[in-house]
Design goal:
Blueprint lengths: L14 H7 L15 H13 L2 H13 L1 H6 L3 H76 L3
Helix pairs in contact: 3-5
Length: 153
């Protein structure tokens, strides 16, 4: 049985929680990622190609060779033009644009999840403080009941 003023339970923070409360842990940002030369080159090309203006330019480039593909009257060449020139050139930047939109949405969801976890951590800390206060009251009551039970003899 707990003596008067003695804590019934001692809350120990999880190491991750301690680091989080100390401000050592923040949400991961794209800019925090370390990439080498190849990563920077790839990112630069992706940014340059992954926009709708590039898709329109690629469509115009592909359309330049359309008359000669049609003029060949060869179905294989026409199918090759559609699949190689048009679809690959035009769909590549459009797909990158779509992926960028999805990535921004995922970043927003991740940031919101981080904020939600931060709120849950705050609530858990409040619960621990509340329980600690209740422990003090219970210890005091136990001490009083014990002194009444022991009473004058």
């Amino acid at each position: 049985m707990a003596e008067q003023g003695e804590a019934i339970f001692e809350h120990v923070l999880h190491p991750h929680t301690s680091r989080r409360l100390a401000g050592e842990i923040q949400p991961v940002k794209v800019d925090d990622q370390r990439v080498g030369l190849n990563g920077r080159v790839g990112l630069g090309i992706t940014i340059a190609v992954g926009n709708m203006i590039c898709a329109y330019v690629f469509a115009a480039i592909a359309l330049v060779s359309l008359p000669s593909a049609i003029g060949s009257h060869n179905l294989t060449i026409i199918v090759a033009w559609i699949s190689s020139n048009f679809l690959q050139l035009v769909l590549l930047p459009i797909i990158i644009v779509g992926q960028n939109i999805q990535a921004r949405a995922a970043d927003k969801r991740g940031e919101q999840t981080y904020r939600d976890a931060e709120a849950v951590l705050h609530e858990a800390m409040q619960i621990q403080a509340h329980l600690s206060a209740q422990d003090r009251v219970l210890s005091d009551l136990i001490g009083r009941v014990g002194s009444v039970a022991d009473g004058p003899r």
